Amino acid sequence: MTIRVLIADDHDAVRAGVRALIETASDIAVVGEASDGVQAIEFATTTPCDVVLMDVQMPTTDGLSATRQIVASGGPQIIVLTTFGFDDYVDDALLFGAAGFLLKTVGREALIDAIRRVHAGESILAPEITKSLVQRYQRARSGPEAVNGDQQGGVSDDLAIPRQRLTQLTDREREVLRCLGKGLTNSEIATELYISENTAKTHVSRVLSKLGLTSRVQAALLSASA
């Protein structure tokens, strides 16, 4: 099955560069381009498309507003791409329903892998972003609002049950969880633990399943609080 991709960016050179990168994959085809948020919304809601690569800062309508409208309409999966400080955008992007958030410095293989994973229903965050979220969570847990090491009504409460399930993990799965806490990709986990990438992927799936988690970000936050 061919994954149909829309590239939304207000710079012609960026769109051309991204197209050249991802069309090296035989299962990915760029079916359209948009130079602003309005064009992206119109295309994504009227033309068959599976994944949108969405820039943040675009004229007329910015990428985050476009993401919110496309997701609300039941449109394709969206990966937000940015060169800007991600702390300013990642929360809104995820809140509005983006399935992924990557930096434009992402390599070809990582971008292609992200498109495939998002199309398959997974969520994907750049390792730098995962690390930032973990650091913010750690600061929040140690801040004045923390009570007995936990936030009241916050993310830590959501992780209370998964934390109790940590005893179910094997030693290898605990190593994988620590790698997730570092924001490592499956490929990086494989290198870190001297295992194959497929084995790393299997371990990640088992960790999430055993702990009752739905995303790598949750696993990273749990690792930070364990």
TrEMBL record:
Residues modified as 4-aspartylphosphate: D55
Keyword Iron-sulfur found: no
Residue stretches making up the HTH luxR-type domain: 162-226
Keywords: DNA-binding, Phosphoprotein, Transcription, Transcription regulation
GO biological process, one term: phosphorelay signal transduction system
Keyword Chaperone: no
Domain Response regulatory: 4-119
Cross-referenced InterPro entries: CheY-like_superfamily, NreC/VraR/RcsB-like_REC, Sig_transdc_resp-reg_C-effctor, Sig_transdc_resp-reg_receiver, Tscrpt_reg_LuxR_C, WalR-like
Listed GO MF terms: DNA binding
Descriptive protein name: DNA-binding NarL/FixJ family response regulator
Organism: Lysinibacter cavernae
